[in-house]
Amino acid sequence: MTPSKPDLRIETPQLIEAEAFDDAAAAVARLEELYDGAVEFLCRNFLATMAIGRADCRYRAFYPEIRITTTSFAKVDSRLSFGHVAEPGTFAATITRPDLFRNYLRQQIALLIANHGVPVVIGVSDTPMPVHFAVANETDMTVPQEGAGDFILRDVFDVPDLSTTNDDIVNGTYQIPADGTAPLAPFTAQRVDYSLARLAHYTATDPVHFQNHVLFTNYQFYVSEFENYARDMLSDPDSGYTSFVATGNAEITEAVQVLPRADKMPQMPAYHLKRADGSGITLVNIGVGPSNAKTATDHIAVLRPHAWIMVGHCAGLRASQSLGDFVLAHAYLREDKVLDDDLPVWVPVPALAEIQIALEQAVAEETQLEGYDLKRVMRTGTVASLDNRNWELRDTSGPVQRLSQSRAVALDMESATIAANGFRFRVPYGTLLCVSDKPLHGELKLPGMASDFYKTQVSRHLLIGIRAMERLRKMPLERIHSRKLRSFDETAFL
């Protein structure tokens, strides 16, 4: 908690007493009421202070929280990997943007109430809301850098606090406080707010547009293909898709509408083919490198997507492969290094059967090949991800030996990072790559080398990813979010 200046009194919004709820919708409505009241209080006083240029008090508002206390070891339905706590005790989670997470919160709270037979308590937490996050949804308001105003910002308002903006819960390093209250959700409110702000910055789209199924790519060509597919879907009244959103939050609802092009592209542009219930598809062009892959997944994870899949280009490592062949990853050799401090390299990152089957069936559907014939265009095996795009220019004896020992069939710079962060954040993950070069066999990625077969396969590649996501959308939530991604000491919230 940010310390208060001793000579300034603290003003807070009028607080509503904590109340127990046995109805999930009513509980979420109270969360929204508390959150909106805190935001309104901070925004109103921030504007007033900016206008006056001074303050004779300190303004502080708090995030709302969900709290549940159980006293029984009674066993709940163990078929579900979420929606219940593992043992008696008190569990709590601070909440932000309950409007954005309304459906998620209703679902998770309803499961808690049903599984434990006790109400949840909704009230005000003791975690201050930073003024930066309070004004984030007001397009005409921004918080200036320290020194830009006529008063010291931290003397009057709370600012982001690293003690509550971290990944301790998902990393398994969270320390239970002295009062014994355990975490109920994988992220704190400040951690979520931080990522929502970063997502808007990196992707140039509002987080509200993100869908539950996310495709990552490292090649701009897929963006054009995605827009073409989106327009086809919008022209079909039975598709279930309602709109398409591009960078700058440009949105169309009809196939023939013109999308204004952004004057300046963000670092990782995102595009969203939306459905009314959020079960559509988001495509993010993360560019090249494991750092970008980690950054994107670090922030998208707070939205609790149902799956993310990498559909990018890779180097084929087998002489029998051809440009344009597909690679379905069933294991990962992690030499990207960016996640080593958060997820040690000795932690296995397993393939998830539900994702693998959906991808294989999508390849079969699009190529009209089945069974043994699928090997003509797709190999299944280990994918290695490196942090050095030009590894070929160094002594390759070490890397080549490790690639051989791992039985790797392909190499890229992003897939292992995306899979490892999916494992770390409990987001179902998968990888389907397209071979664009074969550096060990003299076929470097150079202009003019792409064959007609390669160009055809690239056109199919994105569609295969979309087909896989559409299959996953029809899958029950409890099946795709299985125990394979969750530990024996897990938060109740998905």
Automatic annotation (TrEMBL):
Q: What's a GO cellular component annotated to this UniProt protein?
A: cytosol
* Stored InterPro entries: AMN_phosphorylase (IPR047039), AMP_N_sf (IPR037109), AMP_nucleosidase (IPR011271), AMP_nucleoside_Pase_N (IPR018953), Nucleoside_phosphorylase_d (IPR000845), Nucleoside_phosphorylase_sf (IPR035994)
Gene3D superfamilies given in the database record: AMP nucleoside phosphorylase, N-terminal domain, Nucleoside phosphorylase domain
Q: In this entry, which stretches build a coiled coil?
A: none
Q: Does the keyword Hydrolase apply?
A: yes
* Keywords, sorted A to Z: Glycosidase, Hydrolase
Domain (AMP nucleoside phosphorylase N-terminal) spans: 26-177
Source organism superkingdom: Bacteria
Q: Which reaction does it catalyse?
A: AMP + H2O = D-ribose 5-phosphate + adenine
Q: Does the keyword Cell wall biogenesis/degradation apply?
A: no
Nucleoside phosphorylase domain location is 271-441
Q: Name one GO biological process term.
A: AMP salvage
The GO molecular function terms of this record are: AMP nucleosidase activity
Q: Report the SUPFAM superfamilies cross-referenced here.
A: Purine and uridine phosphorylases (SSF53167)
Q: Which Pfam families match?
A: AMNp_N, PNP_UDP_1
Family in the record = Belongs to the AMP nucleosidase family.
Q: What is this protein called?
A: AMP nucleosidase
Q: Which organism is it from?
A: Thalassovita mangrovi
Q: What is the lineage of its organism?
A: Bacteria, Pseudomonadati, Pseudomonadota, Alphaproteobacteria, Rhodobacterales
